[in-house]
What we know:
The protein is of the alpha/beta class. It has helices at about 10-20, 70-80, 90-100, 115-130, 150-160, 220-235, 245-250; strands spanning about 1-5, 25-35, 45, 60, 80-85, 105-110, 135-140, 170, 185-195, 200-205, 210-220, 240-245. Helix 1 links the parallel strand 1 and strand 2. The radius of gyration is 19 Å and the shape is elongated. The model has no long low-confidence stretch (mean pLDDT about 90).
Amino acid sequence: MTDIILCGCNGRMGHVVADSASKNDNCSIVAGVDAFGENSFSFPTYKSFSEIKEKADVVIDFSNPANLDSMLEYCVSGSIPVIICTTGYSSEQVEKINKAAEKIPVFYSGNMSLGVNLLIELAKQATKVLGNDFDIEIVEKHHNQKIDAPSGTALMIADGISEQLEKEPQYVYDRHSYRRKREKNEIGIHAIRGGTIVGEHDVIFAGHDEVVTISHQSQSKELFATGAINAAVFVVGKPAGMYNMSMMLAEKLK
């Protein structure tokens, strides 16, 4: 049994993770952390990590970048692995995550979906074939409550594509501020926010007289919760280091 502390338990994803964990025989949430305090969960909820009394094997984080410092301090001091699913971190915060991974197992992913990670692998393969001759654009769509833009997943896709290109590309997020032709060495990344869209990502390879598009649609938030729980079970017992969805999938395929 994997005992979990859920950071951001009062948020939308927190509720989905709690519900998914209650149906999973391999794990249990023993405590929650959320700045908005108590709620109707069966497990105790605290406003800060310093108040937690329960012992746990791992922390799952679906909260806010503002919680990073206190969460990492708690996990490092207690040698507890952490599953970081929050997005929108600054470069300085990402560096703190990397530093923590020198001391504890850190599973860090901008998207916990199996399908999205498959999309990334397909986009990388397509880039090997088309990248030198096709323009590459990424379009992501999410609900109107999402704060960060572009999505962490869009950046994951862009980074995966960049690894396959001979020359490091420039990420272009907005084209209205200048008037010039598209440079060859660009990856355009575009964010759409509206309604209750769970998450959609399109990778567009636009060439001469043809377009190849790789797409993924998320139909519910449950798939992200399932991925996070699987990651929690996977990372417990691992040595310190940075882990991601590709590594977990590779182990499952052995």
